Amino acid sequence: MNETHIDELLQLERQKLAIQFAAIEVAIDDKIKASEHRVVQAVTNAITSAVMDLKRDNLALQAGLAEVRAEVADVRAEVGDLRTELKQDILRLEQKLDNHVH
Question: Which region, left, alpha or beta, applies to residue 2 given φ > 0 means left and ψ of -120 to 50 means alpha?
């Protein structure tokens, strides 16, 4: 083999190594992109799950609030009824006192 052949072989070997290096870089970039996609997907899923949990909690709280409001309305109605009864009782007692005094 002469020197020209050796130079050509060395040049071919350099090109082969450059191609292998580029292929390795592409493979690494592909793995990084795939990892980034998995991370984005995992974060998206976690956020979606948290939002769904919050929506369920909000619906439960709204239902609970509606129940509390209904109970408050019932209690107010009962208090109103009791006030009316007490006023009537006071009037009767005042009338009895007036009758006993006169």
Answer: beta
> What's the pLDDT at 39?
98
Place of tokens 């980034």: 36
CA-to-CA dists, residue 88 to 12, 69, 102, angstroms:
112, 29, 21
Residue 40 CA, chain-centre distance (Å), reads 17
Q: What average pLDDT does range 65-93 have in this prediction?
A: 96
For residue 32, the one-letter residue type is I
* Residue carrying structure tokens 């592909």: 30
Rounded to whole angstroms, the Cα distance separating 30 from 38 reads 12
**H runs (alpha helix) in 1-102:** 3-101
Residues 6+ apart with CB under 8 A from 97: none
* pTM tops 0.70: no
